[in-house]
UniProtKB/TrEMBL annotation:
GO terms for biological process: carbohydrate derivative metabolic process. InterPro entries: Homeodomain-like_sf (IPR009057), HTH_RpiR (IPR000281), RpiR-like (IPR047640), RpiR-like_SIS (IPR035472), SIS_dom (IPR001347), SIS_dom_sf (IPR046348), WH-like_DNA-bd_sf (IPR036388). Residues 134-271 form the SIS domain. GO terms for molecular function: carbohydrate derivative binding; DNA binding; DNA-binding transcription factor activity. Gene3D superfamilies: Glucose-6-phosphate isomerase like protein, domain 1 (3.40.50.10490), Winged helix-like DNA-binding domain superfamily/Winged helix DNA-binding domain (1.10.10.10). This is MurR/RpiR family transcriptional regulator.
Amino acid sequence: MNGTNVSLSILDRLSDDWDELTPEAQKAARYVLENPQDVGVSTVREIAEAAQVKPNTFVRMARQMGYDGYEDFRAPFRDAIRRGGMSFPDRARWLQDIRKSGGLGGLYADMMEATLRNIEESFATISAEQLQTAAEAIWNSKQVFTLGVGVNNAIARNFTYLASTGMSDFHAIPRPGSTAVDDLAWASDTDVLIAITCRPYRSEVVEAVEIAKSQGMTIVAISDSPASPIIRAADHGFVVGAESPQFFPSTVAIVAFLETLLSFVISVASDEIVDRVDRFHARRHALGLYVEEPT
C-alpha cells in the first residue's frame, strides 16, 4: 500500500473493525489506510492535523485496536522505515522526528542519515552488470590479493576470510611484517588486486595499485570518488559513499559492497564452490570449532 511494507495485518484489522469505530475514529482509520507511509514519520499531533481530527481520536483508535496508545500503534510502521520499506523522503521525515527528541537525538539522526545515504547512493551508481564483470574476473583469476590499510585492513581481511571458505589463493595484504609492494612481487597478469582506500588516500595503496598495473594485474578498486587515484587506474572501479558527521569516514557502504561482490563471485563460480564450502564447514565442525546445538 502506497509503497510501504508494513505488515498488512494492521491495515487489514483496521478495515475489518471499521464498523465498530466511531465516525471520528473512521476518519482517522481512513487516513491510515490511505497514507500508511505517514504513520511512522508523524507525531500524533501532525497526523491528526493531516486527518482533520483531534489527537485524542488517534489515541482512542489505537486503543480500540488493542494498543496502549498511538506510539505503540505506530511502532511497526517505524520499524518498516528502518528496514527500508519507505521512500528516502519518508525516512528523512523520520530522522527529523528523532532530532526533535532532544539530547543525543540529533547525533543519532545524523549518523543514521549518513549511513542510509551512503548505502543508497553507492548502490544507485553500481549496476549488476558491473558487479558481474568484476566477479567473473575474480573467479577466473589464479590469485586474488585484497589490499586495505588502516581501518580498511580489517575489512580486507574479513572479505578474504569469507572468500577463502570456498576459494583458495585469496591473500589479504600487507602480510604481517611485509609491505603491499613486496607481497605483489611475484603477481602477474593472471591475478587480481582488490584495493580499498578513501580520502585521505593512503600512499602505499596508490603505489601498490600502480605497481600491480605495471605487472599486468587486473585492478578492482573501491574508493569514495571517481577522481580517486585508484579508481582512475582500475579496470573495475566502484565508488562508495563514506561521508559521516564524525571525524572518521564511514565504512558501512564498503562492507555492504564487498558482501555483495562476494555474493556475485559465488553466483558466477562453478558448481565446485558449493562442495568446497560444504567440506570447509564440515571440517570445522569435525575439529570442534563450533558450539554444537542440540538436535
